[in-house]
Amino acid sequence: MQLTPEIKAQIEEQKKQCVFCKVISKEMEGQIVFEDDKTIALLDIYPAVKGHTVYMLKEHYPLPSFIPAEDFIHKFGLIPQLAKAVKEGILTTGVNVFISLGGVAGQQSPHFLAHLLPRERDDKFYNFEFKKGKQIEEEKGKVLVQNFPLMMANFFQRSPAPWHQGPGNVPGFLTPIYEKAKVLYEDERVLCLLSSLPAVPGHLEIYSKEAERNIEELSPESSAHLFFTASLAATLIFEALGVQGTNILLKSGFSDDNPKGRLVINILPRKQNDALQNIIWQPQQPTYDVKEIAKRIKDYSWKVKYKKKELERKPGMISTKPIVFSERKEEKRIYSVDEEIRKAIERVK
Fold first, then answer.
1. Considering only CA atoms, which of 236, 218, 226 is closest in space to residue 72?
2. How many whole angstroms separate alpha carbon 105 and alpha carbon 247?
3. What string of DSSP letters covers 222-276?
4. Would you state the CATH architecture of domain 5-348?
5. pLDDT per residue over 67-79, tens digit each?
6. Whole-angstrom distance, CA of residue 220 vs CA of residue 73
7. CA distances from 226 to 73, 80, 208, 220, 262 (A)
8. Residues paired with residue 183 on neighbouring β-strands, in sequence order
9. Residues contacting 282, CB < 8 A, separation 6+
10. Average pLDDT estimate for 338-346
11. What is the pTM of this model?
12. In this structure, which of 90, 143, 202, 281 has its CB flanked by the most CB atoms within 10 Å?
């Protein structure tokens, strides 16, 4: 995305006060567990669970919509390898990737980052156990069903992929879910649907068609495509449903809140005082030897590499053309890129 001089100036001001930028520049100390030329991962100083790792691009971006395509692929293409290293270092059966977009959703830093949380059964982390909430209103559901395929079609039109021809097939492990679900979108690699057990209205679920349980089974390109679809879905519900923020939550492997061990990304619309107030953990000091945990993860993360030859294309991020959301055939709401950037800045504030 081409950023205006005004927005670039705002980002530069953010960087001056950004704690993570200071860790990246080595002005401040951090327990770094992985680093390459574009990304860095370090232990969270207020961990939700043992081995809680924060992962980010070294360049300062407030939100994913600001990230250049190549950097987006690099970051999210490494998630499977890094998640595996965190799991192996802590010896757990599962992992979460948690992202907050907007203050209402728990975004506390203007430096966009992802939390990697190693998980296992009986770990006493209950924040991601959701109670069934209300279904989305029918008319609003139609807006999502109508527009998400159009947004993905526009994406593939801008950035054709040699593997993409259409919706693809549904693997056997997703058939029971597929037959009961309201499908928003699918291609050869992902399936996106309205949750049948929504935590909040507009709760979406995105499944990989290539891996049933573990994120580490995905190739870099498949992981990047999975997270790009999630990012675009978060943009869709933010704009179309008029919410104030979104959470992106990947569950992978077995934990108390993922008893079947399914690989799934939850897209959660957020509003002030909604039913998901407990999703954000309370800050607490680690009760374990931080340096020892960092060493254990580093013993596995040294082999994490960005393998560019595995990537078949560079997906664009957000089109310079307006995105059209229609509630009725005769009514259309148009959101330009400039509007989305302004709204993005407000979300971070």
1. 226
2. 6
3. HHHHHHHHHHHHHHHHHHHH--SEEEEEEEEE-BTTBTT---EEEEEEE-TT-TT
4. 2-Layer Sandwich (3.30)
5. 999 999 999 999 9
6. 8
7. 11, 11, 7, 10, 15
8. 193
9. none
10. 47
11. 0.88
12. 202
